[in-house]
Specification:
Elements (H helix, E strand, L loop, with lengths): L1 E5 L4 H18 L4 E5 L3 E5 L8 E6 L5 E5 L4 H12 L3 E6 L13 H6 L2 H11 L2 E4 L2 H7 L5 E3 L6 H4 L12 E8 L13 H8 L4 E8 L3 H5 L6 E3 L5 H11 L2 E4 L5 H4 L4 H8 L3 E5 L2 H6 L3 E3 L2 H13 L1 H18 L2 H26 L1
Parallel strand pairs: 1-2, 1-5, 5-6, 6-7, 7-8, 9-10, 9-12, 10-11, 12-13, 13-14
Antiparallel strand pairs: 3-4
Helix pairs in contact: 1-15, 2-4, 7-13
Organism: Modestobacter italicus (strain DSM 44449 / CECT 9708 / BC 501)
Protein name: Glycosyl transferases group 1
Length: 357
């Protein structure tokens, strides 16, 4: 079986949903050839009304299955139809609810107002199979019943780096990864919880952001500006630094429709690097089952304080979560699920062709 994957070229999504799964599939030794591209080779003609050019042919490069990551345009929908007409199975890969991006997000205008999120749903409905990272996304994108969940996982080489819990810091670093500008509501979910914990442990703790702190101080009601460590655009380097910098990781989320579908990835990354975790009560974080669960400011204050003040409890929690990742949440553990999904799509397309014959 030959599989052609069109990557959306989004750093994190490409790493966890394309690059690393493909690496794991190749190491698995399955009877499948996988090729990754950043776009499809197409031929277009100018539309009669002077509008957008129309796609009239797509080169599948001899693939049995074409995987489209995050397709969200009329052109991509047309590509799916053309590929299927050639007998090529199409898989749509989605790891976020694009139509559920909250107002205030930098992506809201393009995804919601301009309808790109709706186009993504149309592409998923046309596909032979949809792969997603969470059960909630399966409900959203695979209403036709042709979908599978392949959860996010981490490479073994990352999980086997020296874990954070082996350190004995004099000052405990509580950290968050992300861009405050891109998460306009999540950080506020902690209320005064983080500041309470920092006040209780003044001189023994600090707060740092790996990414872009933006207005984090105001959003979280902090007395002091957090330390900022700029984004590292190599994901392996990012994961390495995360474990070298943080002793405690926080993962707050506003419980809205978008975040209800969101993967467990942040808590998984913390756990993979041996960083103790305090996290929101989201469906996916609960399903993962790692980290201390926080719903209100008092919970964030309590568990963050415990993680700072009690080194043994911090180490015990982080070590147990780290062991859970090694036991069941590595990319190699889900490699066969990717292959099974692609084979299922090929079988669905074959059945459709036989019915149409």
């Amino acid at each position: 079986m030959r599989v052609l994957i069109m990557s959306a070229n989004h750093l994190g999504s490409e790493y966890y949903r394309v690059t690393e799964p493909v690496r794991a599939v190749r190491e698995l030794g399955a009877d499948v050839e996988v090729v990754v591209r950043t776009g499809l080779s197409t031929r277009t003609v100018q539309s009669a009304d002077g509008g957008e050019p129309q796609v009239v042919s797509v080169d599948a490069e001899g693939a049995d299955v074409v995987v489209l990551q995050l397709p969200k345009s009329a052109g991509m929908l047309r590509c799916i139809e053309l590929l299927q007409a050639q007998g090529v199975a199409v898989v749509v890969e989605m790891d976020d609810l694009l139509s559920g991006v909250p107002f205030g997000s930098p992506a809201y205008s393009a995804l919601v107002t301009q309808g790109m999120g709706r186009r993504a749903l149309e592409c998923a409905q046309q596909a032979d199979l949809v792969t997603v990272s969470t059960p909630a996304l399966l409900t959203e994108y695979a209403r036709h019943g042709r979908g599978v969940v392949v959860p996010n996982a981490v490479p073994r080489r990352i999980a086997e780096l020296p874990p954070a819990y082996e350190r004995e810091p004099d000052v405990v670093t509580v950290g968050w990864t992300g861009s405050a500008h891109g998460h306009p509501y999540d950080l506020q979910e902690m209320g005064s919880g983080l500041q309470q914990a920092l006040d209780r442990t003044r001189g023994r703790s600090r707060f740092a952001v790996l990414g872009q702190k933006g207005e984090a101080r105001a959003l979280m009601g902090l007395t002091d500006e957090p330390t900022e460590v700029p984004w590292l655009h190599d994901v392996d380097a990012y994961a390495t630094v995360l474990g070298e910098l943080f002793d405690v990781g926080i993962a707050p989320l506003r419980l809205d429709r978008f975040n209800a579908c969101k993967s467990w990835l942040k808590a998984l990354e913390y756990s993979a690097r041996g960083v103790a975790c305090v996290r929101a009560a989201s469906p996916e974080y609960d399903r993962l089952g790692l980290g201390w669960r926080a719903r209100a400011a008092r919970d964030w204050a309590k568990w963050t304080s415990v993680a700072i003040e009690d080194p043994q409890r911090r180490r015990d929690q982080a070590a147990a979560a780290h062991a859970a990742v090694l036991a069941g949440h590595l990319t190699e553990h889900v490699a066969e699920r990717w292959v099974d999904a692609w084979r299922s799509a090929r079988e669905t397309r074959s059945r459709s062709r036989r019915k149409g014959a």
